[in-house]
């Protein structure tokens, strides 16, 4: 028997208890939440969950029972089988974080992600938010991303590219390597 993996995406009207309901549904069937991202966007609650199970039979049972949890929770849930994250991300990479702050303006997400893509760097996670600035009331924008810099590219190249974009677009950008000092 080998571990099987499933990604669930879920979206529905926000209310307290949704995470507890979905995780109870999964754990009661012998599955485990490996990774997740969850957020309220507008009045909707969205979840992206990587689920592991001891074998495919457990995942098949979860897929067969999804209609019941959807009806109870009000969530629309879509399953998708996937590979082990440990097998998928075997390449040697340098993990980095990118933080971008600026006055809110259209195109920031596209400009940053296009610059990262042009270097052949993979975005592992990305989160954005906009909020009122203290005192001025202007809208500030923040982007936080985690990227994997592959062999053949350097963190210095990423920093240089994003510094050029920052100068052009009026952004504050910080790129930080997350690699340990030992490796």
Mean pLDDT: 92
The shape, in one word, is flat
Strand elements, count:
8
CATH architectural grouping of the largest domain = 2-Layer Sandwich
How many domains, in number, for the residues? Answer: 2
Main sheet attributes: strand count, strand direction, barrel closure: 4 strands, antiparallel
Rg over alpha carbons: 20 Å
SS element count, helices: 5
Unreliable stretches (pLDDT < 50, length at least 5) are none
Highest CATH level, the class of the largest domain? Alpha Beta
Q: What is the helix fraction of residues, given as a range?
A: 25-40%
The CATH homologous superfamily of the largest domain corresponds to ACT domain
Name the assembly state. single chain
Secondary structure category: alpha+beta
Secondary-structure element order, N to C: EHEEHEHEHEEHE
Strand order of the largest sheet: 2-3-1-4
Percent range for β-strand residues: 35-45%
Cα distance spanning the termini? 33 Å
């Amino acid at each position: 028997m080998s571990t099987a993996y499933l990604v669930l995406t879920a979206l529905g009207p926000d209310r307290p208890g949704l995470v507890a309901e979905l995780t109870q549904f999964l754990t009661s069937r012998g599955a485990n939440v490996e990774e997740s991202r969850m957020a309220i966007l507008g009045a909707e609650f969205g979840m992206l969950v990587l689920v592991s199970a001891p074998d495919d039979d457990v995942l098949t049972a979860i897929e067969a029972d999804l209609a019941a949890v959807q009806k109870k929770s009000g969530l629309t849930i879509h399953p998708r089988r996937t590979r082990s994250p440990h097998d998928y991300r075997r390449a040697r990479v340098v993990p980095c974080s990118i933080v971008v702050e600026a006055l809110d303006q259209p195109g920031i997400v596209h400009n940053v992600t296009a610059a990262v893509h042009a270097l052949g760097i993979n975005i592992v996670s990305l989160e954005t938010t906009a909020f009122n600035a203290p005192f001025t009331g202007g809208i500030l924008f923040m982007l936080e991303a985690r990227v994997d810099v592959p062999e053949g590219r350097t963190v210095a190249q990423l920093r240089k590219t994003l510094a050029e974009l920052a100068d052009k677009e009026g952004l504050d950008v910080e790129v930080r390597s997350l690699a340990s000092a030992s490796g």
